[in-house]
Amino acid sequence: MLDVSVLESMSQLATVCLWTTCIGSALLGLWSAISLLHHVRLARTIGLPFVILPFWLLGGPWQLAQFIVVPVLKALPERLTRNWLPLLLFNEFWHNGYEPFQRLQADTFVAVSPGGLILYTCDPDVNVQLFRDGNFGKPAELLSILNVFGPTITGTDGPESRLYRKITAPFFSEKTLRRVFVQSVSAAKILLAALLRPDAHHQLRTLSARVSLNTLSQITFSYQTDADLVQALAFQDNIPDGKTLSFSQALHGLLENLGVIFIVPRWLLRLTPFRSLQHATACYSELGSYMNQLRGAREAALSEKSSSSTHSDEDLLNLLIQAGASSNDHGKPVLTNAQVIGQIFLFMFAGHEANANLLVSIILLLACHPQIQHTMQRDLDHLLGQTSPDTWSYDDHYSALMHGTVGAVINETLRLFTVIPVLPKCVPPGGPWLSITVKGQRHPLPPGTIALVNTSATHRHPEHWPKRPADVDQANNSSSWSDTRNDTRQRPHAAADFDPWRWLDAASAEATQTGPGSTKFFKPRAGTFIPFSDGSRGCLGKRFALVEVCAMVATLFKTHSVELVTDSKQGVDGEEEAWLEARRRAALALSEGTKFDTSLRVARAVPIRFVSRRD
Ligand code: HEM
């Protein structure tokens, strides 16, 4: 029997807990109401249209609660939520495209919540101001997830990120681009052999990621070889003594678990009994070990001046190690060990993931658009003749390829698959108010305001990127896409909207229709095409990425074509029906099956096959 006094104490404890919860909730409610009123007042001074949101998009509570709250909110009648709920669905920003802006009839507006103010924009003029006015900062804390090994160029702001850019920018020279082109041709030949294996489509993304990582490692760190790539693509990775994971297994495993590694304290991860967390921890520590070995070996080679690699004299790793070894005016190293390792990790991540995702999107889009693929191949024949890929070069071929159908396909894919659908900027907290000009009117923004440049909406803005459905279907000589356009799961209709011809000068319509050899190329207005961001925090690897993808697309498609695998059906009508069904399935993977985590990627496998060209 329990003592009466114990029961009394328990009941008192329960009462205290209840009161604490009630008072806590009341205080939280009061704080939220006061904060919201304060932020509404601030929003009024800005003078732009504003929407009230019940949650702070960027706060921890919403990030955790959304998995429960969102399904409930989505179950409500749409008219109650349609103007504000999409603004809280970070992972659906790409899918929603221009719709939220269309509904509010504003290309720039403010979302007000108890947590603060967020400016949403897809207005090219505002984009340009946010990118190019150096007074706007980057909310580095939002990207600090990338600082798991040490501070990085992306997860910092101000003088610190400027220092990292200054040290690494000289690497992205014409000399490097020449090497990128040659290495990418070589890597694509190895990739093609892997893609010709039966059922390779199940591993399309993994194969692309491994190819891109190997290319980056060879060029940037003089690490890994073509032989390593052959093994990696055969899933027979080389695992050195003392390790349990290969380099790519460690890096890709870590990227899949980056959130866990960021949130859970390391000591807790080491004690965890859960296998998935143990795997995440192993990836983290083994990748750390690979990077430290890379750094140690290069330090030793540099100090002995006995590096046998000709490339390592000029690679990015040298620039970082040298900055770690030299001193600044205060006698301190320009970069600490953690800063060197932080940048190595950042470049390993930023330098390959987006390229791999872009290549996958291109392959799948071309499978859905055989006519475009065919025209691109004729363009390749025109530009490259019967020459061997080993003779192709950056100086002789890159510019011509990028001004023809290959460039049009790459740019159009970048337009529709904005690898990073939202680019965050901010008015630095604690600094002065900053102004933006919208349609000729100045609007002051208070310190701490976050600005989200929505690349998905910018790239679908009806004024700057009008749809040309009739032209598209005619130029593609393909069946109309009406079967997918009415399906909401197909939002944002990237496969149907794929229209590379818009990049080839409209004035040369004939050249566009016959395809090959067009040298006039559409130049978008500033702020309307921003897949690599822009300004002082724009992508450092933009040209690296374009050269790599260009060389890979040329190599893959010069001799081979990609096809959708169709279910067998009898007769001409049956074949047509089967093909349309396969295309619908692929288009669904390129919409509903596309996810945004560290970057935008097609997460669903699409049955495709590579075959020798038939024409
Ligand atoms: C298709 C491929 C790529 C795309 C679409 C892409 C896109 C971007 C974008 C949009 C940003 C700005 C991110 C932000 O503001 O938050 C960025 C930053 C960056 N990118 Fe890329 N990128 C690609 C490939 C590469 C490659 C190949 C490298 C290096 C070899 C690279 C290195 C970087 C770095 C270092 C930054 C950070 C710049 C800074 O914060 O100052 N990227 N990239």
UniProtKB/TrEMBL annotation:
Q: Report if keyword Ribosomal protein is assigned.
A: no
Establish whether keyword S-adenosyl-L-methionine is in the entry. no
**Annotated keywords:** Heme, Iron, Membrane, Metal-binding, Monooxygenase, Oxidoreductase, Transmembrane, Transmembrane helix
What residue spans carry the region label Disordered? 457-493
Q: Which domain of life is it from?
A: Eukaryota
Ranges annotated as biased composition (Polar residues) = 474-483
Q: Which Pfam families match?
A: p450 (PF00067)
Q: Which residues cross the membrane?
A: 12-34, 46-64
Question: Ranges of Basic and acidic residues compositional bias?
Answer: 484-493
Name the cofactor(s) required for activity, per the record. Answer: heme
Q: Read off the InterPro entries from this record.
A: Cyt_P450 (IPR001128), Cyt_P450_CS (IPR017972), Cyt_P450_E_grp-I (IPR002401), Cyt_P450_sf (IPR036396), Cytochrome_P450_monoxygenase (IPR050121)
- Tell me which PANTHER family the record gives: CYTOCHROME P450, CYTOCHROME P450 12A4, MITOCHONDRIAL-RELATED
What family is reported?
Belongs to the cytochrome P450 family.
Under which name does UniProt file this protein?
Cytochrome P450 3A13
Organism whose genome encodes this protein:
Trichoderma ghanense
